[in-house]
Amino acid sequence: MFAEDTISTIATAPGEGAIGIIRMSGPLTIKIAETFFRGINGKNAGQIAFQQVAYGHIIDPDNGLVIDEVLLLVMHGPKSYTREDVVEIHCHGGPVPMKKILALTLQYGARLSEPGEFTKRAFLNGRLDLSQAEAVMDIIRAKTDASLRMAVGHLSGALSDQIRKMRYEILRMIANLEATIDFPEEDIEVLAAQDVRAAVVLLLTDVNHLLLTKETGRILREGLETVILGKPNVGKSSLLNALLKEKRAIVTDIPGTTRDVIEEFVNLSGVPLKIVDTAGIRETSDIIEQMGVEKAKEFVVTADLILLLLDASLPLSAEDKEVLTMLSGKQAIVLVNKTDLPALLNLDEVYTYIADTKVLKISVMEGTGLAELEQMIVDMVYGGEIAQKEGAFLTNLRQADLLEQAKYHLEATIATIDEGMPSDCIVIDLKESWDKLGEITGDTVGEDIIDQIFTQFCIGK
Amino acid sequence: MFIAGEYDVIVIGSGHSGCEAALAAARMGCQTLLTTINLDNIAFMPCNPSVGGPAKGHLVRELDALGGQMGINADKTSLQMRMLNTGKGPAVHALRAQADKDLYHITMKETVENQPNLDVKQVLVERILSKDQKVYGIEVETGERYYTKSIILATGTYLGGKIIIGELAYKGGPNGQRAAENLTSSLKELNICIMRFKTGTPARVDKRSLDFSKMIEQPGDKEVHNFSFLSEITTRKQLPCWLTYTNEKTHEIIRNNLHRAPMYTGIVEGVGPRYCPSIESKIVRFADKNAHQLFIEPEGYHTNEMYVQGMSTSLPIDVQYEFLRTIAGMENVKIMRPGYAIDYDCIDSTQLKPTLEFKTVQGLFSAGQINGTSGYEEAAAQGLVAGINAALLVKGQEPLILSRSDGYIGVLIDDLVTKGTNEPYRIMTSRAEFRLILRQDNADLRLTEIGRRIGLVSDERYAKFVCKRDSIEESLKLLRSVMITPTPEIQAKMQAMGTVELRTGIMLYDLLRRTEINYNMISEHFDVPLLDSAVQQQVEISAKYEGYISKQLEQVERAARLDEKLLPEDIDYMQLSGLAVEAREKLNEIRPLSIGQAGRISGVSPADISILMIYIEQKRRRDEAN
Prior knowledge:
The structure holds 2 protein chains of 2 kinds. Helix content of chain A is 47%, strand content 17%. By secondary structure, chain A is an alpha/beta fold.
């Protein structure tokens, strides 16, 4: 058997399905599930018979609060997909409970799975037959490429800057400690353990601050508040549906708000869009007509992103003009829809009402321009164009998981210093934290430490 | 064609690498020939007269545990020893010896000359004889041939050597020796890729011309140390080293003469080591540093030559004089030999297997500075491994490959064959990811058993090792079985030992984990025997560092599992779908032996490793089916 550690992931694609599945595999699987699953009949995960489905709740052990009601499937190895112990948690398909449950599995000892890793284990453990080997390799390659683009490509600039700064700080300390170990007779100013401690305490403050953004990061928590504006029949509803269909968005009733205001989440390559007042969009009467330009103004003020749809087959209307003038200074994209029809819209005229707002030609009907729209939005978020009040923030669970690990090692460094252990012991966890931070930014480990020693210190006979 | 002899193993070069290689092969029963350009240069130290230091001292201890010679030779010929890093953890304590250079050479010469199965000859090797990428002999300058089953290249800096002092440049080896001029082209014919590296050495000065009253004395440790687990030397007449500093005046002179420095005029072609820069590059790169320290080291009991450590240079002799005389205590210095730089041919070490045999030339091994390393200890370690593997090849036995968790030797060789090097490579403790368990104090515990298995560990050494190993185990067992409880009598003992009283019953082992407690205190207050100091040290380390050590052992185990997954030799990476392009090329070039080694190649990602694992499993099942 190829049993290493325990891996966990959200097994369902982010979609509009009613349920989402979190799947774990590995030796700790059942133990981890026991920590936060409470069966309705009082059973814990370990007591659930093979291939039995148990109904119960996921409870956050930190505060005892119910996260979601779930169905739990326990499959004991080798009678499972990976031939290891596997647990599947079927929860409600919203992104919040799924992420929360995944985070719990990581907190209690699982590791976020690598792309294709369940399939890889299934193959290595003899679950899949030989003919599937090539396919497994292809899956790993394809998923890795996709997830690399996702993981590293979508780092916010501010976050990667901050992580790199922290890493450099750690690297300088490591280089100093290592240099004094490897070149004890050189006149290198020795970095005192207490100075390392002080620096690590500061780093921990930064790490903790960043970790808070995991919960409070505005865009992640609430989504990028997006409003779709445009006159009747311009295609708002079709655009929404196109985005939803393509990304299989999740419909959620946000508790505490009035029942009739429904928000839809669309996941655009990791950027959650919260499209507001979709009820208004779905009704054939549009919000400008219904609530007047005043209401539209209100949306324009509060939204993070405005998508204004214009009809290419009609000349600019008075309402169009008024809304166009509101876009100045806002994050907005003017979408010229129905480009499949004969053009009557004068684009030059559009430009006279806007300054630097982006304009994109699309045809929702024919599905053209949608990919460009997605890219444009993603670029705006990660290129820092959308105002980010909180600076660097974590964009996904992977980053948060790695940052938690870095934090663990920084704390261990302090413990080592407090126990009065020597510098070669201090360096152990310092290096680990440096590695973990590097995984967030995708900076690979190489000769960095040794390079730094020779850059920082004049060493030699 | 005159055939002058037939051997199992021929070693080309008799420096620190060649001597270990030849001794190992001969001791393993192979008919061995050790060749040298000059018999008066065997185990010569052309750079500083010292052995050991961090990581390097570890290598010497490991070498010794495996039955190598360097440790014993250094113990016999040392004129000063110090244990460095004693203020840090036991893993980085490092023994460093100043050696009497002549004594070191003559003692090693005596050893190799008297080794059964070993012939030592002064010949200049011109050609490697081979057929179909398999070696069968050498041809030397005087025309004769020697046939052999295997060859170990240990040419040091002699291969295509070029000496540079200021405006003077000439072909030659270190210290007025000849260079090996023609061997490189013979290697090129075997499709071996050649690189060019550079190193340098400072001037040697006349002891009588120095004013030591202006320098700081650096004596050896009072406690007598030895590298070898066999050595029982208890007294040693030690000589001091001396510390002095460069100053602004020194730097100014060097700066004013940079236009005459071969490093900057372009005469030096090779890539030099960063950790051993010439004084001219130190001053250029660290311009804001206003003093660099210099150690003045004696070269022997019977010579006035002193080595000026920290002053490696290839500036012209007049400049060397001028700047040396600005230094405190060196105002009237007389140079006996000038400093120089040397350019030399070396090979790209990624062409080697972890056995140090060339992947594409059967029976040809390579060890030491020719592999792009620097340092006597690095050379010796490779020499030993090459010698062992050449002998095992001749005998038709499984090769010896030490892993990164076996020792620094494993780290060194794995780095060379997996990552390669683009500057002279020096071993450092920071290169070892399992540093905490690769200690110089436990090299014997890690490696003696391996040395025994391959036949290099004598009965005497093995008996000593078994005794030490068993004593440690017994002592740990005892400490873990004796429980002490918070009775008034025991609490009184706690007070006497200056440690906090017990709250619950604990094992003596747990008591030993307390920072302020050592084994002697426990032995004094409780019924456990006093131990030999080496045993006691191991017991204390395993108690006090247990948490860190067990964490590291877990990592070792994980790494070992990956190293155990072997990659088939005939794997066609270029055809393997799913590998990233860079990974495919690197894997094809390095041809790693295991999944573990593959993962250490730069440019090979975890996804590529997954794909390789699928491939191995696929192949395993196919083979099983057939």
